Amino acid sequence: MTSLGTHADTEDRNEEIIFDGVLATGDRAGEANDIAVRKEEIYRRNPIVNVSEEFVEEVNWLRMRDISLTYNFSPVFLDKIGIERASFSVTARNLFLITNYTGIDPETSLGGGSNAFGRDYFNNPNTRSYGFNLIVTL
Asked: Nearest to residue 106, comparing CAs of 98, 95, 116?
């Protein structure tokens, strides 16, 4: 969204930024960086295909990926109604996500398992699903 100019950070594209660090080349190599760069230049040089350090985040998260609960009915009760065994299960996937990530999901990936892993560009969040299971043995 920054390369398209639709993110809130791009409101003042003429703002100048001086990145922390030292100059790597030239007569001043090793000296503290004092070169200002306009935000416009950063956003144009780092569109969708490039990854910029500015957009890399340290992320922590906790996710309830899968949970399943099963209840086995009492044989004493089942014998009375002519059933040998019975159980009921409830399963759920992706119940919740707690994260400091600013995007949709810290495990999202635009490119799947390719070298574009981790790119978050209009991706969809993981789906949440529920399931029920009843097993009866006569």
From this structure: 98
Query: Alpha-carbon dihedral of residues 111, 117, 120, 126, nearest 10 degrees?
Result: 80
Question: pLDDT tens digit string along 72-85?
Answer: 999 888 888 889 99
**Measured on CA atoms in the order 25, 28, 32, 34, is the torsion positive or negative?**
negative
Per the DSSP assignment, residues forming a β-bridge with 88 are 71, 134
Specify whether the CB–CB gap between 65 and 97 falls below 8 A. no
CA angle 19, 23, 26 (to 5 degrees): 145
Write down the pLDDT at residue 32.
93
